[in-house]
Design brief:
The chain is of the alpha/beta class. The protein is elongated, with a radius of gyration of 21 Å. The chain starts with a strand and ends with a helix. The chain is built from 6 helices and 17 strands. Helix 1 runs parallel beside helix 6 and helix 4 packs parallel to helix 5. The strands form 4 sheets. Strands 1, 2, 3, 4, 5, 6 and 17 form a 7-stranded mixed β-sheet that branches. Strands 8-15-9-10-11 form a 5-stranded parallel β-sheet, with helices on one face. A 3-stranded antiparallel β-sheet has the order 12-13-14, with no helix packed on it. 42% of the residues are buried. The structure holds NADP nicotinamide-adenine-dinucleotide phosphate (NAP). The site of NADP nicotinamide-adenine-dinucleotide phosphate (NAP) has 25 residues, from helix 4. The site of NADP nicotinamide-adenine-dinucleotide phosphate has 25 residues, from helix 4.
Length: 300
């Protein structure tokens, strides 16, 4: 039996593993998709204390190898259920059943969809949620990015290195991204910023060839020919499968405070998957250490 099963190998989950292992506990990390979580897809991280600049994948790799060097076991799999048996817990995946003493849920969040017609159909045929993964397919082409946060701005900057033109479409005039990031954006000749605009439709069969746009202030509509659309409109949590053992708020985040305690003894929530005001690498790392320390205390 493993001491702690950690669901999610993002910053919170990997930090939890490092703290648990250094405290002498065994830790198994289950990851359904990308080791390193969201940060692995971030082209450039410039706000992690002590590191001026690092690529997200480099940081993710360093975190993963630090946890593995300490003895973390890592398995690919989606945790579909957690059972609370009192002093022990059971985590069920599509391929296995894991008995443990404590569980740390660090599932982060997944990409929010725009909600326009044909979005699913054209995903992989011009529509993408990952500029780092798919940007190179659009060399010399015109692409658009939707969103006004750090991800959208960093995606636009990343794509501008490959694409003939990048159109950044945001539904308001103010951006959530840091002013420093916006400054960089304005310095790129092949990036055009379109504010107060929303994407209302996608055209092209079988590949995306254009967008239908609407100006939210004037109601005016327009067509924008593009070969690629990168959707970067934030994240949504993915915790429904754990509803039996933790409480979720109206938007699906696990209700837990700075202690990372969920209300079920021995089950903790760390990082972006829990209710919190600031979802950053630093707060994810902080949660990982807090949740692991609490889990070690629970295990005794
Ligand atoms: P975000 O900050 O939540 O921004 C999402 C953006 O999408 C917002 O501008 C929002 O518009 C827009 N949006 C949401 N739903 C939309 C819809 N249906 N149609 C059109 N636009 C929509 O998400 P994020 O950029 O992915 O960032 C998430 C967190 O990660 C943030 O805390 C960010 O700072 C952090 N992050 C950090 C780094 C790093 O390098 N350290 C990199 C990336 C992200 P409104 O502004 O109008 O709401």
């Amino acid at each position: 039996m493993t001491d702690i099963v950690i669901i999610g190998a993002g910053t919170a989950g990997l930090t939890a593993a490092i703290y648990a292992l250094r405290a002498g506990k065994s830790a198994l990390i289950l990851e359904q998709e990308t080791f390193g979580g969201q940060i692995a897809l971030s082209p450039n991280v410039e706000n992690y204390p002590g590191i001026k600049a690092i690529s997200g994948s480099e940081l993710a790799t360093a975190l993963l190898s630090q946890a593995m060097d300490l003895g973390a076991e890592v398995e690919l799999g989606r945790a579909t259920e957690i059972r609370d048996n009192g002093t022990t817990k059971t985590v069920v995946t599509e391929d296995g059943v894991y008995e443990c003493g404590a569980v740390i849920i660090a599932t982060g969040a997944r990409h929010r969809h725009l909600g326009v017609e044909r979005e699913e159909e054209l995903t992989g045929a011009g529509v993408s949620y990952c500029a780092i993964c798919d940007g190179a397919f659009f060399k010399g082409k015109r692409t658009a990015v939707v969103g006004g946060g750090s991800t959208a701005v960093q995606d636009a900057l990343h794509l501008s290195a490959y694409c003939s033109e990048v159109v950044l479409i945001h539904r308001r005039a103010e951006f959530r991204a840091e002013p420093r990031e916006l400054e960089k954006l304005r310095g790129r000749m092949n990036i055009r910023i379109l504010t107060d605009a929303v994407v209302t439709g996608l055209t092209g069969t079988p590949f995306l060839t254009g967008l239908e746009l609407r100006n939210v202030l004037t109601g005016e509509t327009a067509q924008l020919p593009v070969d690629g659309l990168f959707i970067a409109v934030g994240q949504v949590p993915d915790n429904e499968a754990y509803r039996q053992v933790v409480r979720l708020d109206d938007t699906g985040y696990i209700i837990a405070d700075e202690s990372c305690e969920t209300g079920t003894p021995g089950i903790y929530a760390a990082g972006d998957c829990r209710t919190k005001t600031v979802r950053q690498l630093t707060t994810a790392a902080a949660d990982g250490s807090i949740a692991a320390t609490a889990a070690c205390r629970w295990l005794g």
